[in-house]
Amino acid sequence: MAPAKGSLQKGTHLMPTQRTDPCWISRMAEIAPGFDDIHLPQNDGGLSQDREWCEVIVDGVARRIRFHDYGKLYQIPGLYEGLFYERLECCSPSRVVGLFEDVLEDVEDEEPDLRVLDVGAGNGMVGDELLSCGAEVIVGIDIIEQARQATLRDRPEVYSDYVVADLTDLSEQVEERLRRAKLNCLSTVAALGFGDIPPAAFLKALDLIDTPGWLAFNIKEDFLCERDGTGFCRLIRQLAREEIIQAQAYRRYRHRLSITGKPLHYVAMVARKRKDVPDHMLELYAPAEA
């Protein structure tokens, strides 16, 4: 008999990840897992990406966690890595940072001293990649405290500073703190869209980095189409049209697998920030007051 929709895969696993990246291996080896096993729903292909979930066994007790409930994921050591990077073969941190490194190799002037604002920093996976590629300073920012706590627990050496704040509603003190850091690069990986980081937050982060500066980010390919409802397609095109950013590299790739094994494709982009973000754009994309 076929399993009922929404039942769990028990004793069966997706194809294991074939990774040889020493940084990735060392990251996993250094985190003592706080869970016993992960089960994915079976025959649930009707779920959208932002509604996917898993069942994780912690001390013999099953807990159901939605993938985008990041606070709960981060609270269990090793779960984020075990779920996304081992089971679902996510490669985005290394792909985005690797593309950025490729672009930097082609820069004719001196290699920049990178001072990075890592937006949606989570538990430090991207910051770890940036550190390994020679970033001088990395400042993380995320909207949830559990992300900062997970980073302090698992990767305390990665960030020079880690701010918990909403980029669409920054206090004057936090904004001044970030501007004093003289950041010249914006990174954000697997965080745009789905309501996690709206266009207004991305634009504010771009405003916070120096001009000229760098951007290295990724986004689900659907959010760059004309039918996009998130606002990112419109924003990125406007930034390019007004010559605020200049694209340097663009690569489509498989971000990870869905819970049913279907490839989820994203686009990695690297761009230069050529102009300051004008006030009229910040006002245009500002969230409506409640």
Largest sheet: 7 strands, mixed
Which residues form runs of ≥5 with pLDDT under 50? 1-20
H/E element string?
EHEEEEHHHEHEHEHEHEHEEH
Number of strands: 12
The top level CATH class name of the largest domain: Alpha Beta
**Average pLDDT figure:** 87
Morphology call: globular
Q: Report the CATH superfamily of the largest domain.
A: Vaccinia Virus protein VP39
N→C terminal distance? 51 Å
What fraction of residues sit in β-strands? 15-25%
Strand order of the largest sheet: 8-7-6-9-10-12-11
Backbone structural class: alpha/beta
Please indicate the count of domains: 2
Instruction: Give the fraction of residues assigned to helices.
Output: 25-40%
Radius of gyration: 19 Å
The CATH architecture of the largest domain: 3-Layer(aba) Sandwich
Number of helices: 10
Care to give the gist of this entry?
The chain has 290 residues and is α/β, with parallel strands linked by helices.
Task: Report on this structure.
With 290 residues, this protein is an alpha/beta fold. It folds into two domains: 21-87, no CATH class; 92-284, Vaccinia Virus protein VP39 (Rossmann fold), CATH 3.40.50. 32% of the residues lie in helices and 24% in strands. A hairpin with a 5-residue loop joins β11 (245-257) and β12.
Question: Layout of SSEs?
Answer:
Elements (H helix, E strand, L loop, with lengths): L6 E2 L13 H9 L6 E3 L1 E2 L10 E6 L2 E6 L3 H6 L3 H9 L4 H14 L9 E5 L5 H8 L4 E6 L2 H10 L6 E4 L7 H9 L4 E4 L10 H10 L4 E8 L11 H10 L3 E13 L5 E11 L5 H7 L5
Parallel strand pairs: 6-7, 6-9, 7-8, 9-10
Antiparallel strand pairs: 1-3, 2-4, 4-5, 10-12, 11-12
